[in-house]
Every structure is written in C-alpha cells, then in structure tokens.
Amino acid sequence: MAAQPITTSSPRLASPGVPALAVHGLRKTYGTFEAVRGIDFEVKQGEIFGLLGPNGAGKTTTIEIVIGLRPMTAGRVEILGHDVTSAATQARTLIGVQLQESDFFEHLTLAEQLRFLGACYGMAPDTDALLGYVDLGDRAGWKLKQLSGGQKQRFALAASLVNDPPVVLLDEPSTGLDPTARRQLWELIRALRGDGRTVLLSTHYMEEAEVLCDRVAIMDKGVIAAIDTPLELIHQLVATGFKRDVVVRDATLEDVFIQLTGHGFEDESAAELAAANGRHGRGKKGATS
Amino acid sequence: MTVATSDRAATSTGMSTARHVGSPAWAGFKATITNQVKAFYREPAALAFTLGQPLILLLILNSFNFKITLPNGETRPYLDRLLPGMIAFNGMTVGLNSVAFALSRDKQRGVLRRIRATPVPTISFVGGVIVSRLIVAALVTLITYGSGVYLFGAQLEGNVALLLGLAVGGAAVFIAFGILMVAVSRSEDDIPPMFILILMPSLLFSGAFLDRSGLPDWLHWVTGGLPLTFLTDAVQQVANLGGGLGDIRGDLLGLAIWGAVATAIAGWRFKMA
Ligand SMILES: Nc1ncnc2c1ncn2[C@@H]1O[C@H](COP(=O)(O)OP(=O)(O)OP(=O)(O)O)[C@@H](O)[C@H]1O
Ligand SMILES: [Mg+2]
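The joint structure predicted for all components is written out below.
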C-alpha cells in the first residue's frame, strides 16, 4: 500500500491529487428494494463533506459500504486510492468511523475501550489525548454506562480516532446532542480538518451542514440530488426566485436555548439539567468520581 | 446569532493519536484475550455462575451419602464418581455458556460490528475469545479438582495433567458449539432454547451425574454419541480407573469429530455483523 504516514499528526496530504474518497456508480439493493441507485461523488482531501438526506435516503448504507460492513451491489469505492473491496484491510486502516448502530464493550473503561479498538488496528492510541480532545479526560476510568447520551456520542468520536486516521466517517455524530453540545462538536470536527484529516459526515441538521461542511451532497431515495458548497446551493435556489415565507426574526428559539443553557462540556451537572429539560432522558448515570 | 465556542483552538487537535505496535491480527488477538478475561472477572454473574456453580453442585450432590460401584467392581462414595463428571460438565458449561451468551449479546448490541469496521481479521477476534475461555476452563477445572479432592476428600486416580488437558480440550469442543450457536442464531433470543436443547440430554444421559448403565439399550446407544458422554467417559476412565491416553482413544475420536464438524460449520457461518 502507498506509504500513508498515518502515525504522525499532520500527515494527510500525501498524494494531493488523489481524492480521500471516490464513489463511482454505487448501487445497493436489499432484495428487490434499491436503497442506493447509482451514486457518484468524490471527497477531496482535507475537506468536511456532508451527506444530507431524509430518513431512509441511503446515507448509512453508503457509509457502511465504504467501511466494508455491507457488500455493494455494483460500483467502485476508493479510499485514498485503495479499493475498499479488493483492498479492504488497507482501506479500513485509513478510516476512522463512528457508526449509527454500534456499541462498545460494557465492562471496559473508556481508556480500555480505546486501547482495545486501537489494537484492532495494530495501534496503541494515546488515550489521554483522545479523551482530553472530547473533554472526557477525567473519565478515563469510567464505564460507558455511566455516561450521558451526549458524552457517549463524544466518546464514539474519540473512538473513531484510535487509529489516527486520515479519513473520518461520522454517521450522524450530532444526533442526540443539545444545541450547545452540537456547536462544540463542530469545533471538534473542524479541528480534525485542521489536522489535515478528511471528514465525511451525515446529518439531518441543515444549519450544521451550512456552517460546518465545505461541500454537501443532498441525497434522497438513493440518488444524489445535488452536490456543491452550501452557499452555492442556496444561491442557486434563490436564483430561481425562491423566497422563505417566514417572518425574519432577530433570534430563534435555539438562540434562546443557547443563551439560557450555553456552557462548556466541562459543566456537566448544568449540561445534565439542560438534557433533562430537553429530550434525551437517558438511563441513569453512575456517580463514580 | 451567538455560536458558543469552546476555548480550544479550532485549528487542529494538535495530537498524534496513535502509534504502530504491530499487525492488527496479532495485536487484536492479544487485546481480545485480555479484554475477554477482564469481561469474565468483572461480570459478577458470570463469575458466580462459572466458578460458584461447581462448588454449590459439589456441596449439594455430596450430601447424597451413598456408595456406587465402579466399572472395575470397586465400591466407592458417590463423590468419587461425581467429581470427574463435574469436571467434564464444567468444560461444557464454560464452553457453551460463556461463549454463546456473551458473544450473541455483543453481536446483537453492535459491538462486533464496530470491531468489524477495523482491519482486525475475524479469526483474530474469535481466536482471542476462544483462548480466553480455555484459560477460564483450566481455572474452573483446577478449582473443581482442588476443592473436590482437598475440601471434600474425593479419591481420584490418574494423571492430573491429563485430566486438565481433557477438560480444556473438551471445553474447546463446546466452545466451537457455542460459536456455532451464535453463527446460526438470528438473535440473542435463540440462544437459551439451543442451550437447553444441548444441556438437557447431556445432564441426564451423559453419565456425568447419573449412571448410564440403567438406560434402555436404544437410549444408551443414541446418547453414547453425545459429546458430553465421550468427555465424561474419558475423564472417568482417567480419574476413576487410572486410565491413560490409550484407554480413551474412542472418546477422543468422538470428541474430535464433534469438534471438527462444529468448527467447520461455525467457521463457515459465523459473521461479526
Ligand atoms: N439491512 C437492510 N435490509 C433491508 N433494507 C434495508 C437495510 N438497511 C437499510 N435498508 C433500507 O435502505 C434504505 C436506506 O437506509 P439507510 O439506513 O441507508 O438510510 P439513512 O439515510 O441512513 O436513514 P436515517 O437518516 O434514518 O439514518 C431504507 O429504506 C431502509 O429501509
Ligand atoms: Mg442512517
């Protein structure tokens, strides 16, 4: 495999011409149902690329084909020039992933989980740095079940970096996060781009796509309806004469929420209060520390 | 609009998150063993069931204070016949129980999917699981043997190393069955019925707890092919009659066939996701 210096912190732009991810003519059928109907797109090295689309659009299917968790029906997918079918192991080595439906061992501490996953790549991750990066530095000895939903999401993000990957795939990383936590996640993801990593993420939040992603693909019913920068897509829509039929206000309810509850990850008890008032009434949290 | 930003610089994470330590196959294999052994001793239920059950069974069954006659005509306390049976039976429960239930749960919860997304070969992960259970089987055998002989005063003949080897080898066969169960199950819920299906005839007809000599001919013949019957007979031959490898060739062959068949089907059907 081409020498990808995946052991250093800002290596990524090794062969600049090669796309980080290239998807050509990708199709996927489940029985007779065609979930992905021949899509093409390329993600450039060093960009944050958003995969948008309603439930069932085929985002997870696409991401899991890239990582090799599901076989494709037709098409070709390459990670930094490595075919994910014929060179699956090399391709996986280059990818960090946060899956929509997966879990971690329940009996291991956060640090042990990261070490175990890292070993599965033949790597020894710097668990302190990883947990510190997602503000879980003081919870290295905690178990997963002691974390809140948002903390689990952050942990999953840290877990996607155990192999110091040049390409990071995040399937709905901000689902279940409160607005403040979501904005902080954006900072974390931007920092990944700052390292020189490439990020592909799926999301249902258009604001997130707009402010975070360099380019987005809008997917619906297994086809890509548009690919461009968020701004360009908006300009195109405006050019058709489109106008929002809402009263423009100086603030939104989301702004109110952030004003009232906005604080860092660090202030966990306040974050929990916010979470309790919000939607994710997750299971109880252990009190170890 | 106000965008809350953390005080961390958004420019880069500034970290090298990992360094190479070896191949995914080997590093993943070793890490799986460590991880699975930890899982075992950190799970009070598994620990109590696997280590406590033999002791409790010994305590209860030893209170039946009667004598039995060995195949060589000797009269002995029931305990002397029970202990080898328990050593064989433990091999089965460690193999079936701790593999099938834990692995199917991890599969259902998506833990195995997450591992599948890494370059570690499935065989490394499964190999690590197998080795961890063999360690547990050896441990349980030593505890059962030790407590039976030194606490309860059982009198066993035979070579302890050979006994240990038999118990661990027998466990390997049942570990293959455990993985096979996960491989052919559609969900976690399929495991208990399959477990009972193997457990019940083994418990009743293998000779581990009840003497097989009273069985009707046809039932004796049919259940003579059960994997636990082979294993129990082998352990009893060694522990009660001081037999060696030559005396248990038939049993070993039977176990090897079961093990090979289970391994072949499990290897063919097992998927991480
Ligand atoms: N294993 C499967 N078997 C059959 N159909 C499937 C399977 N997985 C997904 N599908 C179907 O494929 C389509 C795309 O699913 P996918 O999970 O990729 O959507 P998604 O864009 O990730 O949606 P969401 O936003 O809800 O996560 C859906 O209609 C779904 O029902
Ligand atoms: Mg999805």
